[in-house]
Design a protein that fits this description.
Elements (H helix, E strand, L loop, with lengths): L2 E5 L4 H12 L5 E4 L26 E5 L3 H13 L4 E2 L2 H7 L2 H11 L6 E4 L2 H11 L3 E4 L10 E3 L2 H14 L7 E5 L6 E8 L2 E9 L12 E4 L4 H13 L4 E8 L5 E7 L8 H4 L3 H13 L4
Parallel strand pairs: 1-2, 1-3, 3-4
Antiparallel strand pairs: 5-8, 6-7, 6-8, 9-10, 9-12, 10-11, 12-13
Length: 292
């Protein structure tokens, strides 16, 4: 079995993934995204930076920090018939909050009230339709960056002016959600295939609870209800190996906030007691048809 691990650099998660592969007798070739140089027309016969033909790989495991590099590499490799986790279709949907919301709506997945507008004027109306407080998000981005909670018209006008003046076209797509008054935490569930293998509460005094922003990870029991909504959400975006972020509303119901297709999990195995990397790799190996 030959695997290519496509990365920007080796982080804690990639070290855990490599160890999990090695424990099953697989030694992936590490391919750095900065070394990629695809001949689009030649196809999978060309050599990868590892020195072997792309067609020789049974699996491309994509772990790029750069969303655009990972997504476009998957688009090319999948077009040549190469298998990957995750697929380009899943990555493209999860990498865009608007496309994710559309996928959730199509599948009937509970999500926060979401509106989209394309000018500051229509965005102001969208914010007031959602009602204050509202949350403004860029359609692309991660780690809780550039989120804004607006409480009144004055703050909304100021943020819209800044984004219209300083932002690129992504920031001129105004993605507006209701603010869900969560109980000082949200939930990140790790979905592998058709089930949530583990979940954490991300607790914080700040309304942004990402662990990258200081949120504290604690174990969250995977109940039947949590597993069911996570599996449905994952399938809505194409399935695979995904981190599903959920909020609990005032009635304790789950709403799905977004999904990450290149999930970070280094802070989650210890509180959950689940070897997330090994679960992921065992699933991948099983899907390719190699018995561990």
């Amino acid at each position: 079995m030959r695997v290519a691990l496509l990365v920007t650099h080796i982080r804690a998660e990639e070290k855990l993934i490599l160890s999990a592969f090695n424990s099953r007798g697989v030694s992936p070739d590490i391919i750095l995204d900065r070394e990629l140089n695809f001949d689009i027309t030649r196809g999978a016969e060309q050599l990868a930076p590892s020195g072997i033909a792309w067609r020789a790989y049974d699996l491309i495991f994509e772990r790029c920090v750069s969303t655009s590099r990972g997504m476009y590499a998957l688009a090319i490799l999948n077009s040549w018939g190469l298998r990957s986790y995750n697929t380009f279709e899943t990555a493209a949907t999860c990498g865009d909050k608007l496309l994710t919301s559309i996928a959730f709506a199509r599948a009937g997945i509970p999500q926060p009230h979401t509106r989209v507008a394309f000018t500051p004027q229509s965005a102001m109306q969208a914010i007031e339709d959602v009602k204050y407080p509202a949350v403004l998000k860029p359609v692309t981005g991660s780690w809780g960056r550039l989120l804004a909670r607006v409480h009144n018209r004055d703050s909304a006008e100021a943020i819209l002016e800044h984004r219209q003046t300083l932002g690129d076209y992504n920031h001129h797509t105004y993605y507006v959600q209701e603010y869900v008054d969560k109980p000082g935490r949200d939930i990140r569930a790790f979905v592998v295939g058709d089930s949530a293998i583990a979940a954490i509460y991300r607790e914080s005094n700040h309304w942004i609870t990402n662990t990258a922003r200081g949120g504290l990870a604690k174990n969250c029991p995977v109940t039947e209800a949590l597993n069911e909504i996570c599996a449905r959400a994952a399938q809505a975006v194409g399935g695979g190996i995904l981190a599903v972020d959920l909020l609990e509303d005032a009635r304790g119901n789950f709403v799905v906030n977004e999904i990450n297709h290149t999930m970070e999990f280094r802070n989650s195995s210890e509180p959950t007691g689940v070897n997330i990397a090994q679960e992921v790799i065992d699933f991948v190996i099983g899907q390719i048809g190699v018995v561990a």
